[in-house]
Amino acid sequence: QLQLVESGGGLVQPGGSLRLSCAASGFTLDRYAIGWFRQAPGKEREGVSCISSRGVGTNYADSVKGRFTISRDIAKNTVYLQMNSLKPEDTAVYYCRAKIGCDSGILIGRSWGQGTQVTVSS
């Protein structure tokens, strides 16, 4: 069955960098778009970035444009989120999820995974 497992989170100082991984199984990345989301305590889950099933189209939330980069490795069936110039407001649990398309709100799969914690603090 379709499964996505997030990893790579941790504690980093403001201005630092971190690379998150989203390992896919049960399907190949050319089947669906993959979106990164995050949720901070007391706040709603928000979309951060997305890469299309063709690997050509990408989208970013205004809050992370110029700092985050989404990419994928077809051979490893893994999507990455490179996060640079991290700010305390980036602190959240980060999740990845398959989507019909980057411009679609329709999510694929039964539920959200465990996510990976990112903490930006001095």
How many helical elements?
Answer: 0
What is the CA-atom radius of gyration, in angstroms?
A: 13 Å
Number of strands: 10
Largest sheet entry:
6 strands, mixed
Task: Describe the strand arrangement of the main beta sheet, using strand numbers.
Answer: 2-10-9-4-5-6
Main structural class: mainly beta
Mean pLDDT: 97
**Helix amount, in percent?**
under 10%
Rounded to the nearest angstrom, the distance between the terminal CA atoms is 40 Å
Order of helices and strands: EEEEEEEEEE
Beta-strand content bin: over 45%
Shape: globular
**Uncertain runs:** none
Sequence-ordered SSE layout with sheet pairings:
Elements: E1 3-7, E2 10-12, E3 18-25, E4 33-39, E5 46-51, E6 58-60, E7 68-73, E8 78-83, E9 92-99, E10 116-120
Parallel strand pairs: 2-10
Antiparallel strand pairs: 1-3, 3-8, 4-5, 4-9, 5-6, 7-8, 9-10
Model description:
- The structure is a single chain.
- It contains no helices and ten strands.
- It is mainly β and 122 residues long.
- A hairpin with a 4-residue loop joins β7 and β8.
- The relative contact order is 0.32.
